[in-house]
Amino acid sequence: MRLWVCIALLSIVLCVSADRPRIVDKIVKAGKFVRDAAGGARDMFRAYKDMREANYKGADKYFHARGNYDAARRGPGGAWAAKVISDVREGWQSRVSGRGAEDTRLDQEANRWGRSGGDPNRYRPKGLPRKY
Asked: Closest Cα to residue 66, out of 103, 108, 114, 109?
């Protein structure tokens, strides 16, 4: 029995250290992209929840930038999710909320700033509680 356990462990070690076929690398890379995208969507949702909880006038650009920043730090999948969510949200808001093209343009600017790695605190209003 111990011999079989040793053979199994040796086989695992050899398989892990062996070169993998390209298709396996692509599957692993795709899995990481999907995992990053899911994490990025969670980051965006957390920023949205915090924005609703804070209910602080003038803080929406900060939360847009922060959500995109956090999502993009996860990698390409997170940045992709942040872009898709931001574009859909702004498209919907511009048609439904009636806040206007200027507000949408400024929101998208904050979204791009956060996704590109810019510090979200650029948009942080004075007086916003430290919790956020």
From this structure: 114
